[in-house]
Amino acid sequence: MRPISIYTRFLLVIFANALIFVTLPTPLVLAINIYFCSFQVIVGRVRKGQAWLLVCLVFTLGASLAMVFPENLPGHYLLFLFVGVGRILPLVLVAAFMMGTTKVSELVYLLRKIHAPQWLVIPVSVLFRFFPTVRHDYAQIRRAMKFRGIAVTTGDMVRHPMRTMEYIYVPLLNNATNVASDLTSAALTRGIGDPGPKTSIQRIAFTGLDALMCALGLVLMGCGAYVAMFQA
């Protein structure tokens, strides 16, 4: 397992967000998505990386099929699913990597190093703790409902959507409000809102591997910018 610096991850976020505003050819999009998936493998999450790579290949194949049948109803559905939804796939890949491998302390350290305002630091720190907590609560609710014989399988959830909404999603959304409030209070109690100087136990080093991956990312960004300008 090789650590990836928070600075490199910040570059990934910028790169993924920039891709939303440009239309690139399918081979280049696939290369960029493979680049994002490679970070999962680098940090030791090999199965996660393989799973996301399979998703990228499916979206690439679907986008190619959508171009074969562009003028009929199935083609329009394929176009929306694999091309429209596929445009946000890089964001999903980077978000999955960030949420699964980034510590909140590292993220707060980066935000303070770039002199981000407090109104940004506090919500981001709460957000990164929010989703894992909600995922845990969802698992708890599913176990409780299975014990009562409700939504035992995923098929039951699809066949009985109203029951699923009533017994799973409504309690989950209701609990999410309390979770957000509790996490915000916990963050403020720990002094994250204090305007004074801060110290950090995190030691963030920019290694040779980070330099290599950033250079590769910049090359892909340059290719994307060149293609976008050429198309314009």
What does this structure look like?
The two termini are 42 Å apart. The chain has helices at 6-18, 26-42, 46-68, 73-84, 89-101, 104-113, 118-147, 154-159, 161-189, 208-231. It is built from ten helices and no strands. The protein is an all-alpha fold and 232 residues long. Helix 2 runs antiparallel to helix 3 (46-68) and helix 7 crosses helix 9 (161-189). Helices cover 76% and strands 0% of the residues.
Write the layout of secondary structure elements.
Blueprint: H1 6-18, H2 26-42, H3 46-68, H4 73-84, H5 89-101, H6 104-113, H7 118-147, H8 154-159, H9 161-189, H10 208-231
Helix pairs in contact: 1-5, 1-10, 2-3, 2-5, 2-10, 3-4, 6-7, 7-9
Main location: membrane
Keywords: Cell membrane, Membrane, Transmembrane, Transmembrane helix
Transmembrane segments: 12-36, 51-70, 77-99, 119-138, 204-229
Low-confidence region ranges: none
Q: What general form does the structure show?
A: flat
Count of DSSP-assigned helices? 10
Q: Sheet with the most strands?
A: none
Estimated share of beta-strand residues: under 5%
CA-based gyration radius = 21 Å
CA(first)-CA(last) distance: 42 Å
Helix share, percent: over 70%
Q: Determine the mean pLDDT.
A: 80
The count of strands amounts to 0
- Run of helices and strands: HHHHHHHHHH
Judged by helices, strands and strand pairing, the structural class is mainly alpha
